[in-house]
Amino acid sequence: MNLDLKYGELSKDEDFVNKCENLKMNLIEVQKVLDQLLPLKAQYDKMSLPAQIELDLFLAFALNSLHWINLRIQGVDPTKHPIKEELQRIKATMLKWQEVKDRDKRPIVDIEAAKRFVRSGLYDPYRETAKPPNKKIIFKDDD
Question: What pTM does this model have?
Answer without folding.
Answer: 0.63
